[in-house]
Amino acid sequence: MIVTVTLNPALDVTYRVAELVPHGTHRVSAVGMRPGGKGLNVAGVLHALGEPVLATGLLGGAAGARVTGLLAADAVPAAFVPIAAETRSTVTVADGVDATGFWEPGPAVARAEWEAFVAHFRGLLGDADVVALCGSLPPGVPIDAYARLVRLAAAGGVPSVLDTSGEALRHGLAAGPDLVKPNAAELRALLTPAGAAGREVDDAAHALACGARAVVVSRGPDGLLALTRDEAWRGVPPERLTGNPTGAGDACVAALCRGLRDRTPWPELLADAVALSAAAVAAPLAGAVDPETYRRLLPAVRVSAA
Question: Residue 88 and residue 132: Cα distance in Å, rounded?
């Protein structure tokens, strides 16, 4: 079973418009509502692929109850720890070419609520094959939260995949996750002085030096770069897709978790992650993939040594 952790989930609302015009009024052609947050998107993709998955994290208030109901309606297994404050909402505006997101910061989490989650997480490790630790941290959760969860997973013999940014990523790297998946901008932001970055391979090597065992860098429509201490690979999609890229990185994490569990060799693993990421762009909402696009692109992904 793959356990996905979302400490700052959201009630995710997607508006579809013909064209996004700043400061303008828009007619919304369709509204989508679903459980939001990176880890929940990962869980949604894995569930759609028929993979055993359990979503966990922190939920509270009416928005949290709505998220719980939406997960149940989609038959996604979930076991969240309740908090007193209201779960945030997020809004994505998709115009068929790209997407613009509006993210609320999240609820204030009490120390006792965080410690209750840590105990809950420890209890889930006995049935976990891989854990995915995803997204931002809400107020009140310690900045080294992911580092603590990575160490607990390692102590239980469970591989971890970390997908976050900023100081949460910096602290998490120091705990030695089995795989970390920043995008190019998130990885560059770790380097000092700010903005001092070289080639993406060098940036990924920096993340390895910080403690990660493997790094997969999202490069948007240009695909993925994977780096371990012994190997370096690039995966490039056979075509550029337009649509909603919001959940592409989360679909990538889903593929990486599955491959880590199955010990898939890197060329095949990277090809799968590229194809699944592209299939997420072709889907209307984050947390979903277009199966036909996935099947069509997978054999055509180009993977080469970096």
Answer: 21
Omega before 193 cis (within 30°)?
Answer: yes
Provide the Cα torsion 59, 64, 67, 72; round to 10°: 80
Residue type at 60 in one-letter notation? G
- Tell me if residue 222 is catalytic: no
CA of residue 13 relative to chain centroid, distance = 17
**Pick from 39, 103, 38, 33: nearest CA to 74:** 33
Binning pLDDT at 50, 70 and 90, where does residue 204 land? Answer: confident
Shortest CA distance to 199 belongs to which of 275, 191, 229, 213?
A: 191
The span from the CA of 194 to the CA of 208, in Å, is 18
Longest dimension (CA), the chain: 53
For residue range 237-274, list pLDDT tens digits in order: 998 887 777 789 999 999 999 999 999 999 999 999 99
Q: Catalytic pick from 12, 144, 250, 290?
A: 250
**Strands 302-305 vs 232-236: parallel, antiparallel or unpaired:** antiparallel
Can you tell me the distance from the alpha carbon of 155 to that of 150, in angstroms, rounded to the nearest whole number? Answer: 9
Class level of CATH domain 2-6+37-85+108-305 = alpha beta
Q: How many CB atoms lie within 10 A of CB 36?
A: 33
- Measure the CA angle with vertex 86, ends 142 and 186; round to 5°: 45
Domain ranges of the chain: 2-6+37-85+108-305
DSSP designation for 292:
H
Question: Tokens 């997407």 — which residue?
Answer: 99
CA distance 221 to 223: 5
Q: Assign 150 to helix, strand or coil.
A: helix
